[in-house]
Specification:
InterPro entries (chain B): MetI-like, MetI-like_sf
Bound molecules: adenosine-5'-triphosphate, magnesium ion
Order of helices and strands of chain B: HHHHHHHHHHH
Membrane topology (chain B): Multi-pass membrane protein
Oligomer: heterodimer
Number of strands of chain A: 10
GO cellular component, one term (chain B): plasma membrane
Keywords (chain B): Cell membrane, Membrane, Transmembrane, Transmembrane helix, Transport
Distance between the termini of chain A: 33 Å
Helix content of chain B: over 70%
Radius of gyration of chain B: 23 Å
Strand content of chain B: under 5%
GO biological process, one term (chain B): alkanesulfonate transmembrane transport
Number of domains of chain B: 1
CATH superfamily of one domain in chain A: P-loop containing nucleotide triphosphate hydrolases
Largest sheet of chain B: none
Shape of chain B: flat
Chain lengths: 239, 260
């Protein structure tokens, strides 16, 4: 059974149709990457699933429940970390709820993202990569079923980015959380996701699968390179 | 380390000390002779005499009392109104333009009205100071709240913070730097308003001391009053600064990183 199900979803901003009659299914534990040109509606799709936006028509369901307000079983990680600068790292995870179990959970997550030593630092004293780690830990605080990643690595340098990719893959597979990643970077998509969907012409133009994701052999690498090419040509193809 | 503490602690005092020393010398050696320029030592003597008579303490404390009451009442009201305007659309639509209109009226223009309604007693002076503190606090609180990063608000919404959390975690701390700027500004207008109020009509306070001295051509007391005002002004600056260091620790941590 699908965890998330969109059926005939359309979304307009003013006169501009961003998504038209989109239907899709995402199963539990999937890692889906959404790729496509800038302005293609990737963020919009994610915001619809998070409940931050409402669809004009069609239905969006998670576990067969229609998403009408903020989706409490999904958490979004934004391109900019959106940490509260006036709060320390651990406070950013707690949102003022200082119950013992919240603190315990926060510490466990900070440990997992490798920042337990920074729990009392302010965000301004962290690097961009460290801040995104905090944002990742914060997104996991409510132990959501779905993690929505809107280009969270876009602003990072190549090395930090690779590190973060590995961290996200590790965390997601450990918790078996369902993940939707929006990215411009097709290579990143192939590295991280087991399904790659191309968003184009107000909908999902192509669904690619990436069965060799965790396979590092030369042969698998070649297949992944081919997948990158296929995805790129699909995005750039004008028809 | 010693060099930087010297720079931080001592350097700002250097110029005032030099000026006062020069002033003292100039009067004592009769480089300048004027009945309007007493030597600093004479001003200090006047202060000691007035202190012994108890006049000085009494006037300073009554002025401080008026200033504090006016600030608490006016600043508090400005803060609350700003809070309401910043957070409630309905309130903003109803009250903001009216408050903005009232704000453009110069404070001094209100003196006759305040005196007429409240007389010349304490309530009138406190009311006058309160009016002067209300608007800066209102503007800054309102502005602080409405200029919070909408991305952070959206984050709060998508992380399902409730109204109290939203206010305590995002809105209030986000607006605090601007609110504290309002406090600093209001402390400034507080003294100005107090001086005006005490000069226009009063029988006590530093402003009264000064106007009274003017009538008796008591230049030393006038200087003394000016110096007291300067000290009180410095005191409120000091308070404002400390509030900022206490409440805006996060900004300092960021700044010290970029400085060092
Ligand atoms: N709040 C909004 N109001 C009006 N138009 C919007 C709004 N949000 C998005 N749009 C428009 O919808 C279209 C799709 O935007 P969206 O952010 O989903 O694209 P995207 O695929 O995420 O692009 P990018 O890769 O640049 O982030 C864009 O043309 C954008 O201008
Ligand atoms: Mg986007």
């Amino acid at each position: 059974m699908a965890l998330i199900e969109l059926d005939g979803v359309s979304k307009k901003y003013g006169d501009k149709t961003v998504l038209k009659n989109v239907s899709l299914k995402i199963s539990e534990g999937d890692f889906v990457a959404l790729c496509g040109m800038s302005g293609g509606g990737k963020s919009t799709l994610l915001r619809l699933i998070s409940g931050l936006e409402k669809a004009d028509s069609g239905s969006i369901k998670q576990e067969n429940k229609e998403i009408s307000t903020i989706n409490s079983d999904a958490r979004m990680m934004f391109q900019d970390d959106r940490l509260l600068p006036w709060q320390t790292v651990i406070q950013n995870l707690l949102f003022g709820d200082k119950s013992e179990e919240r603190i315990k959970l926060a510490k466990r997550l900070l440990d997992r993202v490798g920042l337990i030593d920074y729990q009392n630092s302010f965000p301004a004293s962290l690097s961009g990569g460290q801040r995104q780690r905090v944002a990742l830990a914060r997104a996991l605080m409510s132990q959501p079923k779905v993690l929505l990643l809107d280009e969270p690595l876009g602003a990072l340098d190549a090395l930090t980015r690779r590190n973060m990719q590995d961290l996200i893959i590790k965390v997601c597979s450990e918790t078996n959380i369902t993940t939707i990643l929006v990215t411009h970077d097709v290579q990143e998509a192939v590295r991280m996701a087991d399904k790659i969907w191309i968003i184009k012409n107000q909908g999902i133009a192509k669904e690619l699968t990436n069965p060799e994701r965790n396979n590092q052999t030369a042969e698998a690498q070649l297949k992944k390179d081919q997948l990158v090419e296929t995805a790129l040509s699909c995005i750039l193809d004008n028809n | 380390m010693t060099k930087s503490t010297f720079k931080k602690k001592f350097l700002p005092w250097l110029l005032p000390i030099v000026i006062i020393l020069f002033w003292q010398l100039a009067v004592q050696l009769k480089w300048i002779q004027s009945e309007f320029l007493p030597a600093p030592t004479e001003v200090v003597q006047t202060a000691i005499v007035d202190w012994k008579k108890g006049i000085l303490q009494k006037n300073i404390s009554i002025s401080l009392f008026r200033a504090t009451c006016g600030f608490v009442i006016g600043g508090g009201m400005g803060f609350i109104l700003g809070l309401l305007s910043g957070t409630s659309k309905l309130f903003r639509k109803t009250f903001d333009s009216t408050i903005q209109m009232l704000r453009t009226i110069p404070n001094m223009a209100l003196i006759p009205l305040v005196v007429l309604i409240l007389g010349i007693g304490e309530p009138a002076k406190i009311c006058f100071v309160a009016l002067a503190c209300l608007f800066p606090m209102y503007i800054n609180t309102y502005h602080g709240i409405t200029s919070i990063d909408p991305d952070l608000l959206e984050m709060g919404k998508s992380y399902q913070l409730n109204t109290v959390q939203m206010f305590k975690q995002i809105i209030f701390p986000g607006a605090l730097p601007t609110i504290l700027m309002g406090v600093r500004y209001a402390l400034g207008t507080m003294w100005t308003a107090l001086i005006v109020a005490e000069t226009v009509s009063a029988d006590s306070g530093i402003g009264y001391m000064s106007t009274n001295a003017q009538q008796y051509v008591d230049v030393k007391t006038i200087y003394l009053c000016i110096i007291i005002y300067a000290f009180l002004g410095e005191l409120s600056n000091y308070i404002a600064k400390n509030l900022e260091t206490i409440f805006l620790e996060w900004r300092n941590s960021a700044r010290s990183l970029t400085e060092e």
